[in-house]
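User: Teach me something about this protein's shape.
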Amino acid sequence: MSAGAAKPPAAAAPPPRAAYRHFLAIPTRWMDNDSYGHVNNVTYYSYFDTAVNEHLIRAGGLDIRDDPVVGLVVETQCRFHKSLTFPETVDAGLRVARLGTSSVTYEIGLFRQGDDEPAATGRFVHVWVDRATQRPAEVPTRIRAALAPLLIAAAT
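Assistant: First, the predicted structure itself:
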């Protein structure tokens, strides 16, 4: 960086464990590790997907095979903070940042059990669509009811 050049803004600290509303324990598997000896980056996205869909199925009654309205992933993001490895159990924290008419923005934190600082944080956006037409549809009432308790206050 040259003299007088602006410094990039410091990254905000990731949300701690207490900032998440729902948790799912996910054991790492031997196959999750890559040749560097830690969980491969693509596997973090699998953990995000598992945390979101487990909640939608269990708490929202989502029938992934037959419901006429389903959520399609349109955006994902992951920030890595610490490595995870096998054998560990990951606590996937879930919260909802936005619950719109036809879309939901989830935020997920992946924590080692007993750790308050996340190993990774991410976001996952669903757009709910009519299965037959693939056109946007309202978030189903029972799904909305399952997600409402996970909704966090918007940042000011």
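Now, about its shape. The two ends are 32 Å apart (CA to CA). The first helix runs from residue 41 to 58. If you'd like, I can walk through any region in more detail.
User: That's plenty for now, thanks!
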